[in-house]
Amino acid sequence: MKNNEVFSEKERNFIVLMIVLLLGAVLVYALRGIFGAILGTFLMYTLFRNLNVFLIEKWKWNNS
């Protein structure tokens, strides 16, 4: 039986890996403008989480 594959399995895996890495790089490049906003949201969540828990438990505020 003759093997008619253009690429071997190892070559296909390498090509798929390169495509995934290229798309990941494009995604990071596209999101660079909102990277600061994403970091800011995590920072604000970290800083104000204890206050939020306090207001919900002590003063029975809505959890939304």
Offer a few descriptive terms.
elongated; single chain; mainly alpha; 2 helices; about 60 residues; about 70% helix
Walkthrough of the structure:
This protein has 64 residues and is an all-alpha fold. The chain has one domain. It contains 2 helices and no strands. The longest helix is centred in the C-terminal third of the chain and has 24 residues. It is elongated and about 75 Å long.
Count of discrete structural domains: 1
Secondary-structure element pattern, one letter each: HH
General form: elongated
Classification by helices and strands: mainly alpha
Number of strands: 0
pLDDT < 50 runs, ≥5 residues: none
Indicate the proportion of strand residues.
under 5%
The N- to C-terminal Cα distance equals 65 Å
**What is the count of DSSP helices, taking H or I runs of 4+ residues?**
2
Transmembrane segments: 12-31, 37-56
Organism: Candidatus Sphingobacterium stercoripullorum
Keywords: Membrane, Transmembrane, Transmembrane helix
Protein name: AI-2E family transporter
SSE blueprint and pairings:
Layout: H1 9-30, H2 35-58
A few lines on this structure:
With 64 residues, this protein is an all-alpha fold.
